[in-house]
């Protein structure tokens, strides 16, 4: 009897967020029916968590050990099992630190996280290891309106870049730009080390702080030395030396001996003058850096403030008169341009895990050819081109974004349940056989082409 090689309609994917202290894993299944697959890399694919659990890194000498225990726990405590009905397909792990060719080294723990090793150990077809803040960038795409606080409405553009910065343990930054696939347009995230640019003081007190920190770190001072959980402690130590008359030994003891000194500093804001000065100082510099990021990327798709520091101190960011917003917009003669950029604070702190799950889904899709229905409706399946600048190049379809590109537009219109847009802009590479055929037509004068009927069933 021949073995049934038909791919299961439900597959198991894995996401993980590996921080300095904890490792978080989740197994989830995704419907891969033809209707779902035809929609391509959705930002909100139909996930269903099968099993999820967090682990303390200090309990394991090797990364392989913690993943092995996770799978053992999953099989013992949930309905997950490796049966013919389920298939471990793709895995994406977001790790705190630099990633080089799918490999990350946790030097403080002696761990090595390597995508090839994980494939061999656990039988995944596809594994990707990415920086945790790049994963957070993809996590931005999954946000709902109720999960953000709007600081500035701006003038939103669905085809523009998106920028993300977030202060937590450190200061992470990344950006997202529209990309193209046979399914349509979607965003990809790209890494940045922008948090490590030099701190550029603007006021007398900021110059004094720079001098203090330059002596402490024996030279260069980055923005992250100020805008981060550790940065709060650095700035507190500066104010302690600058204003010794305000020193409180009891409060200082709590701060110095805390595991998370930054959290204690924030909690003492209304009881201890030096903490109040520290918080005001840090959020002003935070706003300045947010404005600098906005200038570099012009993210009319949105500037998102992520990380733990912002949502836990949201009152310091809201309102145009907050020190954060005034510093963000105060960019001299280019300030008017920044007033049109949407600025939002991310109120949830699980972007890394969300991004790893979304990437797992995309990794799976990359391994499959685009799903195109075999039969087309002759009444609606037409190829249309236009050079009309008023028609958006990427029409909203099955969750994809509009975008006012001023380019000739070519769209393959399918029945509603299989809708997909294909946008051809100069320099785009054709990625499927059906797109290649269209490209040949364009090469012989697409601008004069107005309509082509596609034969039903061709």
UniProtKB/TrEMBL annotation:
Q: Tell me the keywords, alphabetical order.
A: Kinase, Membrane, Transferase, Transmembrane, Transmembrane helix
| Recorded GO MF terms | ATP binding; D-glucose binding; glucokinase activity
Any Pfam family the entry gives: Glucokinase
Q: Would you kindly state one Gene Ontology biological process term found in this protein's UniProt entry?
A: glycolytic process
Where, if anywhere, are coiled coils annotated? none
The reply to whether Cytoplasm figures as a keyword in the UniProt entry is no
Is Iron-sulfur found in the keyword set? no
In terms of Gene3D superfamilies, this protein maps to: 3.30.420.40, 3.40.367.20
Give the transmembrane ranges. Answer: 424-446
Q: Which InterPro entries match?
A: ATPase_NBD, Glucokinase
SUPFAM superfamilies under this entry? Actin-like ATPase domain (SSF53067)
Name of the protein this chain belongs to: Glucokinase
Classification from the root reads:
Eukaryota, Rhodophyta, Stylonematophyceae, Stylonematales, Stylonemataceae
């Amino acid at each position: 009897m021949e073995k049934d090689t038909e791919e299961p309609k439900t597959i198991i994917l894995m996401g993980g967020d590996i921080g300095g202290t904890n490792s978080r894993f989740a197994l989830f299944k995704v419907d891969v029916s033809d209707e779902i697959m035809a929609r391509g890399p959705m930002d909100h694919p139909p996930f269903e968590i099968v099993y999820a659990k967090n682990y303390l890194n200090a309990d394991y000498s090797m990364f392989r050990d913690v993943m092995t225990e996770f799978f053992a726990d999953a099989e013992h405590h949930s309905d997950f099992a490796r049966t013919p009905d389920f298939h471990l397909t793709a895995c994406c792990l977001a790790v705190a630190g630099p990633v080089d060719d799918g490999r990350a080294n946790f030097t403080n723990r002696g761990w090595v996280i390597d995508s090839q090793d994980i494939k061999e150990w656990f039988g995944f077809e596809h594994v990707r290891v990415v920086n945790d803040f790049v994963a957070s960038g993809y996590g931005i795409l999954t946000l709902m309106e109720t999960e953000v606080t709007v600081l500035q409405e701006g003038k939103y553009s669905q085809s523009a870049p998106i920028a993300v910065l977030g202060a937590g343990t450190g200061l992470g930054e990344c950006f997202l730009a529209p990309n193209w696939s046979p399914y349509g347009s979607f965003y990809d995230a790209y890494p940045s080390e922008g948090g490590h640019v030099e701190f550029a003081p603007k006021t007398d007190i900021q110059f004094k702080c720079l001098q203090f920190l330059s002596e402490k770190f024996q030279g260069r001072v980055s923005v992250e030395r100020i805008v981060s959980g550790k940065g709060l402690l650095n700035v507190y130590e500066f104010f302690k030396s600058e204003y010794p008359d305000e020193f409180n030994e009891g409060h200082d003891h709590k701060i110095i001996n805390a595991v998370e000194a930054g959290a204690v500093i924030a909690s003492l804001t209304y009881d201890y003058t030096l903490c109040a000065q520290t918080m005001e100082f840090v959020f002003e510099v935070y706003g300045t850096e947010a404005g600098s990021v906005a200038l570099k990327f012009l993210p009319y798709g949105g500037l998102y403030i992520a990380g733990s520091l912002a949502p836990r101190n949201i009152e310091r960011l809201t309102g145009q008169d907050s020190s954060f917003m005034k510093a963000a917009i105060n960019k001299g003669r280019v300030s008017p341009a920044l007033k049109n950029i949407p600025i939002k604070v991310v109120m949830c702190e699980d972007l890394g895990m969300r991004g790893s799950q979304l990437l797992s889904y995309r990794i799976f899709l990359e391994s499959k050819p685009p799903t195109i229905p075999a039969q087309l409706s002759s009444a609606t399946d037409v190829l249309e081109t236009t050079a009309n600048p008023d028609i958006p190049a990427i029409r909203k379809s099955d969750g994809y974004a509009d975008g006012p590109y001023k380019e000739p537009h070519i769209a393959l219109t399918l029945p509603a349940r299989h809708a997909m847009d294909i946008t051809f802009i100069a320099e785009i590479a054709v990625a499927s056989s059906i797109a290649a055929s269209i490209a040949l037509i364009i090469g012989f004068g697409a601008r004069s082409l107005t309509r082509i009927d596609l034969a039903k069933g061709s």
